[in-house]
Amino acid sequence: MNLDKMLAAQNDFDQQVITSHGIEWSQKERLRNTLVALDIELSEFANEAQWFKVWKKDKQINQAKLLEEYIDALHFMLSIANQKKFEGFMSIYYDAIEELRESGFDGGLNGIYLELKHNLLRMTEADDGQVFVLKYTKSEYSFKMSWYLFIAIGLIGFDFTTEQIETAYFEKMNINKERQKNGY
Questions:
Q1: For residue 81, what are the contacts with CB-CB under 8 A and spacing of at least 6?
Q2: What is the pLDDT of residues 12-47, one digit of tens each?
Q3: What is the Cα gyration radius of the chain?
Q4: Adjacent-strand bridge partners of 136
Q5: Model pTM?
Q6: Selection from 83, 74, 43, 96 nearest residue 147 by Cα
Q7: Are 147 and 77 in contact (CB under 8 A)?
Q8: What SS3 class is residue 133?
């Protein structure tokens, strides 16, 4: 997965949207808006995946729609990385992913999903730049963990491949660009 290419494409798209819509906001306002958008997309993904719907007997999951919802969330993860200059925290540690695949998610998909949301919410807290965990500030650590959990959900929880994710990302980016051209 070419994250550099994806980050650059997302940055270009975000800047085009900001310019074409005349959006003026502070960095804090923009980050919060992006976090809310990401939260909504993650919820739409969870709703499509239905793992938490223990009461539902007939869970017919549309894999294409599920991947599309995951990609919608990915757009906002990339936006946050660009806004906060966190591109360097977006590595995919395949050995760690495989270890997690073998051991399983603590608390299942509900556990990892809630941990992801907790880390994203922590990014809104004041960050004084002091070391929070290891060598990372609170926002750096929270994003790094969020990214890892997000990728783990896709690769382990739903068996998406990095190739599928990248292809779907650029397909959706093309749709988003067309929407913007047409006054979306």
A1: 7, 87, 89, 90, 143, 147
A2: 999 999 998 999 999 999 999 999 999 999 999 999
A3: 17
A4: 133
A5: 0.92
A6: 74
A7: yes
A8: strand
- φ, ψ of residue 136 to 5 degrees: the values are -105, 145
**How is residue 108 written in tokens?**
């299942």
| Contact residues for 169 (Cβ-Cβ < 8 A; gap 6+) | 6, 71, 74, 75
Residue type, 63: Q
- What is the rounded distance in angstroms from the CA atom of residue 117 to the CA atom of residue 52? 15
Residues 6+ apart with CB under 8 A from 109: 49, 51, 52, 153, 157
Percent of the chain at pLDDT > 70 equals 100
User: 136-146 burial string, b = 16+ CB within 10 Å, else e?
Assistant: eebbbbbbbbb
Amino acid type, 37: A
Contact call for residues 112 and 149 (beta carbons, < 8 A): yes
